[in-house]
Write a structure and sequence with these properties.
Helix content is 42%, strand content 14%. It is an alpha/beta fold and 272 residues long.
């Protein structure tokens, strides 16, 4: 864990997203005291300005299956607790899959957020937009807003959002032809003030495909323009930006190239 900030700095990042555990396993590790002690110092030395965590891919807080939902709540509480220990201020989380009834799934998901936020006092959670495949919640702005609104007011302020450009496009939000319209709709339904993180990923699949398939920045169906807008739009100056793009044969080299491309977009309207 303590080596993560230096690895981020190595590729030229100023923000990083970490996993505090293996994301595709249920095993709940305990952080070593040395990791907890070293992480803040390594973060400061690296020059990394922002850090978020991403929770386990196995978690389904909307599940109607009691055993799976209970296990998911334990895992999510563990994630928040580890971030609390490390001083990581945000946990990005996918809404669950309702599997039976959408309305019931929203209620179960929101109730689980309440339970987990009550158990651990510090980190905020950032609900991530989804592509809308299957029974996944969170593909519409209205559904995301409802997940937050169903949480008690005293806990609601600890809930923000992470918007993934690939997921938005796959869900039918046209960031290519209607950039401003998409964000107007977000502001009306959710409020731009609640957007804390952007996942900048191009998409392998077309608008409205409902498929979550990430592509390199500017090389997928979104193309360069939405990323140029994301880097230059003053509304997103204070929003953490994370890439989750394919790594290819050399992940370090590819990530460096993606970050240089995004920085080029920031410098020039014609990009780089």
């Amino acid at each position: 864990m303590a080596s993560a900030p230096a690895r981020g700095a190595e590729i030229g990042a100023t923000a990083i997203q970490i996993f505090t555990k293996t994301p595709n396993q249920w095993r709940e590790p305990q952080l070593r005291k040395e990791e907890v002690a070293e992480f803040p110092g390594e973060l400061e030395r690296s020059g990394i300005q922002a850090v978020v965590s991403h929770d386990s891919y196995l978690i389904n807080l909307a599940s109607p299956v009691p055993a799976l939902r209970a296990r998911s709540i334990i895992s999510f509480k563990g994630e928040i607790a580890r971030c609390d220990e490390l001083g990581v201020p945000y946990v990005v989380t996918h809404p669950g899959n309702y599997m039976d009834d959408r309305e019931a799934g929203i209620r179960r998901n929101a109730a689980a957020y309440e339970e987990c936020l009550t158990a651990v006092s510090e980190p905020r959670i950032l609900i991530e937009t989804t592509a809308g495949s299957g029974t996944a919640l969170g593909a519409t702005f209205e559904e995301l807003a409802e997940l937050r609104e169903r949480v008690r007011p005293e806990l609601r302020e600890r809930i923000g959002f992470c918007a993934d450009t690939c997921h938005l496009y796959a869900a039918g939000y046209d960031l290519v032809e209607d950039w401003d319209g998409v964000w107007r709709a977000w502001d009306e339904a959710i409020g731009l003030e609640h957007l804390a993180c952007l996942h900048l990923n191009d998409s392998k699949t077309p608008l409205g495909s409902r498929r979550d398939r990430h592509e390199l920045i500017g090389e997928g169906t979104l193309g360069p323009e939405p990323f140029r807008r994301a880097m230059r739009d003053p509304r997103f100056d204070g929003v953490i930006k994370i890439i989750e793009t394919p790594k290819g044969d050399d992940g370090v080299k590819t990530d460096r190239r993606m970050l240089r491309r995004l920085k080029g977009y920031r410098r020039s309207p014609r990009g780089g």
